[in-house]
Design goal:
alpha/beta, elongated, 313 residues, three-stranded antiparallel β-sheet
Length: 313
């Protein structure tokens, strides 16, 4: 009798252990299924973000070199003034976050990244001149990211002295080995002190497209340049000491997620859309601005998509 009771008790314990094991396995399966669903949804979002209108090959700049070119990052974040300490700008907290994000993003986009920190106004001009004199024959393009203080039409060196932005970037016109190749500048700097409280959005309008220009063997000296600004002329740009600037944060995110399937022009619209959604504690807004003098579209991974039979967008 005792043996039978012991056998029944053992059987009940085994059954309880079995049920416990089954419940634990079911819980693990639910967690794994949830993880798979999250990954699947993330992949769907990425694929959806890359599903854009195809662009013909003859509308694209050649981008088949490895690396594509040099990406120069000028990050001025420590400021002084050579004669009057009271005229020194405030240091730019959070600039190191922007620098890190840009380095990782443009390495991913197959650029050789060079970083210069805290250059004076003279050193900034000298560096751009040095870049224009380099041999870019083995490259497809050139990129420069400028992170600093600024005002309308000017940016500031680490010595808190201004330099005309057009004069500085215009030095790249003298690069013979970059003629006909895209030269792209992304500027994170204030362009004034105007603040934007935003407006109520009632509806959206579609803007008309540009008419194509006639083809000629001689191109304008100002052609093949692209300028991406964090904010319109006259306006302030915002930056978080913890997360970096709004503009650079969104630019790096969009370029990383969408560059395989989208052109530069489409990605910059996404950047502007995302930046426009942000606001400060006071409710102030910001939008980015582009000056596009490119003759064709830039697609960073066009050569890879061709090899695998994909289409450029």
């Amino acid at each position: 009798m005792q043996a039978r009771q012991a056998q029944m008790q053992s059987s009940q314990q085994n059954e309880a252990a079995y049920v416990k094991t089954v419940n634990r396995l079911e819980a693990i399966i639910k967690i794994k299924n949830r993880e798979v669903a999250e990954v699947t949804e993330e992949m769907r979002k990425i694929q959806q973000s890359q599903a854009t209108v195809p662009v013909d090959d003859d509308e694209l700049y050649p981008m088949d070199k490895h690396p594509h070119g040099i990406c120069l990052i000028i990050n001025n974040h420590k400021f002084y003034h050579p004669t009057n300490p009271e005229r020194a700008h405030n240091d730019r907290g959070g600039a190191e976050v922007d620098q890190y994000n840009l380095v990782q993003t443009f390495r991913y986009l197959r650029y050789r990244v060079e970083v210069e920190e805290n250059l004076t106004h003279e050193q900034m001009t000298e560096k751009m001149m040095e870049m224009s004199l380099r041999d870019h024959s083995n490259y497809d393009s050139f990129i420069c990211c400028i992170l600093t203080h600024g005002e309308r039409d000017v940016v500031h060196g680490a010595d808190s002295i201004e330099v005309n932005l057009s004069d500085m970037t215009g030095l790249m016109k003298f690069s013979k080995t970059l003629t006909g190749k895209p030269k792209m500048f992304f500027v994170q700097a204030c362009r004034g002190d105007k603040e934007d409280a935003g407006v109520q959005l009632d509806h959206e309008r579609d803007s008309g497209g540009l008419q194509p220009s006639s083809v000629n063997s001689v191109i304008p000296s100002d052609a093949d340049f692209f300028y991406g600004y964090a904010t319109p002329s006259g306006s302030a740009a915002y930056r978080s000491k913890r997360h970096g600037s709004w503009y650079i944060s969104e630019l790096c995110k969009v370029f990383t997620e969408s560059s395989y399937g989208s052109t530069l022009g489409r990605m910059m619209k996404k950047v502007n859309n995302q930046v426009s959604k942000a606001f400060t504690k006071e409710g102030l807004k910001q939008c980015s601005e582009n000056v596009d003098r490119l003759r064709k579209e830039v697609h960073f991974f066009h050569h890879i998509r061709n090899k695998v039979g994909g289409r450029s967008h």
